[in-house]
Amino acid sequence: MTDTKAPLPPEIQEAITRYRPYLSPADYEELLASAARSAPSAVRVNLLKSSDPTQDLNAWSERYGWQTAPVPFSTASRQILSSQTTPGQTLEHRLGYYYVQDAASILPVSLFSESSTPGLVLDMAASPGGKTTQLVDHNLDRDFIIANDSSASRLSALRTVLQVWGSANHMISNFAGERLGDWFPQTFDRILLDAPCSMESLRVSASHPPRPITADERGRLASRQLALLTSAAKALKPGGELVYSTCTLAPEEDEAVVNALLDIAPNAFQIARIPLGDLQASGLISFQDQIFHPMLQNSLRVWPHVFETNGFFAVLLSKVADFSSDAAQAPARPFSATGFAPVPASQLTVLDTQIMDLYGVSLIPYLTQSGLILHQRGNSLHLVPKAYLDHFPSLPYHSLGMPFGKIYHGELALSVELINRFGNLFNANIWTIPEDKVAQWLSGQDLRSLNFQGLKMGSVVVIRDELGRNLGAGKLSANRLRNLLPNRNLLR
């Protein structure tokens, strides 16, 4: 967090002045003061790779010299007030043990009710994927998530984030979000719409320099936001939950958009008050010449001074009555065209025995219970979400599920992605890399002439360091451990 002595940029000062009538004098002064400071980042623990987030956060804080503060709505997260090693430069970050983001952006997914029942989830504007990983954690990768983004150029980054995180029960798609509600009316249990916005966070930020935002731009954005929100509202099941959020505090893109949906779909949605302790972040019920529905007081307008974040808006809408259109035809591509076919039960037993013999863990039953069905094409094995096959079997995708491995001469070689996700659970065929070889390994080099005793020749080996961190996988051959780390995990 950096204090700035220079005057506020005029774009931020002008934006803040708009809100003076809606804040107490004390809050207005606090907002002015906070706007001159960059917000501290926050880390959120990967619940797929951590059995004790508090313990891990404490260990990382000690290891990297972090001074932290709690995040009121996420026990698995902390703000980093100062650090000797910044959160984005650690090995744990590179390996997907935690995600770095602004604390306020952790809020939207935190609003969803807890549920242990697997559901269908839509992330309508998913890239770059931070909130998608939080949706994955929400039910420990048992929900099926469609991570959609309308920009094809952003899908590669989204896919990388989900691979590093270890998600398997998802698909990535590239559709205009405005069409999804007509294609899949009243289908999803939970929908997140973190909408494209003007990013008027009311705070200095090196990554998002302030710029003038015109009324015309706000109007164009609001029109698209309402189209996306209406589509999301159609796609939501009665009884389901929809979170609408933006990283702007412009009411034209926040309360006014939600208010327009409430006018379009009267009596179809409720906005319940979300208790957040002492957090004072009520939404507006009027702005300038607009009067909003009284329920919008229960939305969350997170001013930067409330708990030292960037400005943010979020609201949880519960669907209490039907609101949908006649279904339109979605694009279709038969899954059979991929060439994948389900692995027969007899072969699943053989594969699970091989995994048990080599790694000391029975993995196939766990994956099946998690809604993942093993498929094969040629010598390649792939985990395909059962929910995709049950509900969206012809929907084209950019990526789906997780590579499981390959079969060579009857022997199974597990994928790097699978070991990245489940390697912490394995009990055998594990090699602890000497500390002085870690940097060489993380740069992508093979290792030779070391003690590989106790490992099976020709197998994929789980690599851990002396702290027990999962460093991926290597292929053992005579006197050589071939490095299988993907480029995304390498030191640069």
In short:
By secondary structure, the chain is an alpha+beta fold. The protein has 16 helices and 25 strands. α7 links the parallel β6 and β7.
Question: Notable features of this structure?
Answer:
alpha+beta; 492 residues; nine-stranded mixed beta sheet
Number of helices: 16
Count of DSSP E strands? 25
How big is the Rg? 24 Å
Q: Tell me what portion of residues adopts beta-strand conformation.
A: 15-25%
Structural class, please? alpha+beta
User: What would the principal axes of the Cα set say about the shape?
Assistant: globular
User: Which ranges are low-confidence, i.e. pLDDT below 50, for 5 or more consecutive residues?
Assistant: none
Described by strand count, sense and barrel closure, the largest sheet is: 9 strands, mixed
Mean pLDDT across residues = 94
| Termini Cα gap | 26 Å
DSSP helix fraction: 25-40%
Explain what this protein looks like in three dimensions.
- This protein has 492 residues and is α+β, with helices and mostly antiparallel strands.
- The protein contains 16 helices and 25 strands.
- Strands 5, 6, 7, 8, 9, 10, 13, 14 and 18 form a nine-stranded mixed sheet that branches. The chain has a five-stranded antiparallel sheet with strand order 15-16-17-19-20.
- Helix 9 links the parallel strand 8 (188-194) and strand 9 (236-246).
- The chain is globular and about 75 Å long.
